[in-house]
Amino acid sequence: MPALKGKDYGKTKMKYPDFVATPSGLQYKDVKVGNGESPEDGDRVVFDWEGYTIGYYGRIFQAKNGVKGGAFADETDFQRCVLGSHTVIPGLEEGLKGMKVGGIRQLVVTPELGYPEDDPSHTRVGPKPSTFDGQRALNFVLFNKGLIDKTLLFNIKVIRIDKKDGDGNYIRKGSST
């Protein structure tokens, strides 16, 4: 079926009117604006996240910290990435830029800005779902050869932004917990 070549999954790209669209195709909406500085390339960002499959009945593939979240959240419960290191999907990395500590943002990530096909276990490029069920739900959508829309929705909250000191170590700058 020639019409299905490439990443055309039979559905036109949705434009959500209450979201801001970037030139790359990422759409985002700030639910809560944080405080302080925004991260730059080279900064380590500590964040919490949720992930949903938009085209597969809004199925969740990563829930927030669950019972360990809230007042009982431990720093090890959160995801970390160094901006510019390409260790998270491009849509998430772009979405983190411009945020501030305590900020909450929703991201609509197109397949082009999502998980790479050559990393099916999500170990090289994350974030990786923390449960087997979450991994299975995400992979069902990403690797389905049918017409399932592979657009994803992320809710992210910036917990902390760490800047490098002169020796290459990270200095804890601020925290929302």
TrEMBL record:
Any one GO CC term of the record: chloroplast
Its EC number(s): 5.2.1.8
One example GO MF annotation: peptidyl-prolyl cis-trans isomerase activity
Keyword Isomerase: yes
Domain of life from the UniProt record: Eukaryota
Record keywords: Isomerase, Rotamase
Domain PPIase FKBP-type: start-end pairs: 42-162
Keyword Lipid metabolism (UniProt): no
One Pfam family hit: FKBP_C
Catalytic reaction(s) noted: [protein]-peptidylproline (omega=180) = [protein]-peptidylproline (omega=0)
Protein name: peptidylprolyl isomerase
Species of the source: Guillardia theta (strain CCMP2712) (Cryptophyte)
Lineage: Eukaryota, Cryptophyceae, Pyrenomonadales, Geminigeraceae, Guillardia
